[in-house]
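Why does residue order matter? Because the sequence determines the fold. Keep that principle in mind as you read this record.
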Amino acid sequence: MAAWSVLLVVTLLEGLSGLGRTAAFSPFLNDLCRDLSLSRTQISAAYALAHLATMFVLPSIGRLFDRASFPKFLSIFTLLFGISFVGMSGLGIIGTTPLVSLFILWFGTFGIRMALHSYSIAGRSTIALWFPKKRGVAMGIYTLFTTLIGSAVPSIAYHLHQHFTWAGVWVTIGLLWIWMLLLCPCSAKPPPQNIPTVSSPLPSSSEKKATCQPMVFYFVMMTLFFKAFQNTGITLHWMPMCREFGADAEKVSFGFMPIAVVSITTTFVFGHFFKKITPVTVLLLFLSADLGMLCAAKAIAATVGVYGFILFTGLYYGLNNVVATLVLPVLFGVRKIGALHGWAYAFVSFGSSVGSFYFGWMSDRASYQTALSLCTVAVFVLMLCLFRMRKSLRRHETV
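Structure:
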């Protein structure tokens, strides 16, 4: 029961933190530009730099998970999440110059991103450590609830935008999260003490000779990097993107709910049959779903485009859960799993930083259509790399 109580705490924090994720910012993007006298490119740049700064501290956050008690780890980042939102909401009360506003946005987003990634590190590391024989089941349950809650975020954010200012929403979220500090972490049990540890998520030189090719590690990290590159860019700009494509923003926001159903189903199915398929197959399907999502996104103004976007995005999100939660332990083991996920989310954060700026810059200089087309080319390159490395990936499996 201790393992399930730990998973429950992380699931609650991960799911409810959806209001701090990129999709929840998108409806307020134009209002921020107007109220703070900033352009989309400037706000995207502040958002990108916050992700970039987070990238450098995530390996240390992963090591902190391996060393600190579970309640202490979550308490630190729950408090950070709440304080960051309360601080950013002050932009709606005090008068500042655009430069000061950008700095506060950067600092607040930096705190939010550190907290969000800490929940992801804790969730996936918990599954790898506490559920060695039931990873597929634990991952499915974890994904079920976090995705169900998260899928409602775009619609909730859209309707909040219709009735409240961004400052009012942010201060409410911040105070709510500080209140949650008193509840969630206190119910968690400390992690087991019999888990062997190592000093680094990357294999030692002797381990590399025996089981590892460094390029395997970096290929998987780059795959996660590019997922975050697209995901953050598209979700931050989904409302302006709908306007450019002539799509109904409200319909698209509701589309995230069936996306959640497809994602959950995909996670359960591939989690159940994971031992019968190889990581290479999962990665290939992951990139194929990515390709389908990008093609459908460009045709989202049509009904068939919306359905295609729901299908492929759901597959894409579901397979990403499999890669992050099941493929990583199989390829690299569970020793110092927190640090391993710290490195993984460092690449994810780097992808988010570049992706958010890329889509903002492309929207001002060219169009969202052009941005998606270039992403499609990048997916083809990753698929070619996967075919060239498939034998190395199979040799790299450890469990």
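Residues 98-130 form the longest helix (33 residues).
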